[in-house]
Amino acid sequence: MVTAAQAKAKYDQLVDRYEDIFFYVADVGRDLVAFADPAPGARLLDVGAGRGAVARAALAKGCAVTAIDASPLMMRRLAEEHPEISASEGDLYRTGFADGSFDLVTAGFVMQVLDDPLAALTEFRRVLAPGGTVALSLERQSVGRLGWFQDLSIEFFAPGGVSEPPPDQPGPLTHDRLDALLGEAGFEGVTRETVELPKPLSGPDALWDWMMPRGLAEMVPALPPERGEEFRRRFLEGARHMHEEGGIVLEFAATLHRAYYR
């Protein structure tokens, strides 16, 4: 289990590279704001704002933007780069804003990492004015042509296999479950759409470099040296086969969700 302090430290370390590593956040941030369709001057709260993909897009639409995130360094950088955005460290479960403070609440790729997404949605509804909108993006989980990498990772890092979560622990948040949670939190008129952003990579080494900051940089050194070398060799072998069988393309997709507080 990653602690809150560890999560803050991780994202503080990624402040300069965040949108290079997570290549899709800027495009989906613009898509999310377009999907929400705020009026110029709308009071917008962006939670889990990160480096500001959604906040910047909202600012370009003429919104009055407030941004909060658990990473203080990311918020300092966002405030320095865009002083017209009110950016600060904050808790999305207890934002501290008065009831009805905002016309729109956004959360880009936040809901899937929360322990209690329903509590977060309830807080979003509280700070929305009647008639307000919530707009969320959710990463779609799909192995696609990277099934070989999943199998390799299980062999090296979870040799006993991946077990089902206990009955009292839900699995990954799905788009259907998120829609249902929006209804439970008191929102109406739930709609969603899908965006797809395939990313081609130049070859096996490029795939290795792309995967490293997404977990391999911590997991591979934890293996015995000979196992680490074997993992890298077999990874590159699988990536070469993928490259020869149609190229290495990351099949990224997300769902956008919108609902209203009447």
From TrEMBL:
Residues annotated as domain Methyltransferase type? 45-135
Does the entry feature the keyword Methyltransferase, yes or no?
yes
The UniProt keywords, alphabetically, are: Methyltransferase, Transferase
User: What Enzyme Commission number(s) does the record list for this chain?
Assistant: 2.1.1.-
Task: Supply the enzyme class, top level.
Answer: transferase
Molecular function in Gene Ontology: methyltransferase activity
* Pfam families according to UniProt: Methyltransf_11
Q: Which GO terms describe its biological process?
A: methylation
Q: Which domain of life is it from?
A: Bacteria
Q: Which PANTHER family match?
A: METHYLTRANSFERASE
* The protein's name: Class I SAM-dependent methyltransferase
Q: Which organism is it from?
A: Amycolatopsis speibonae
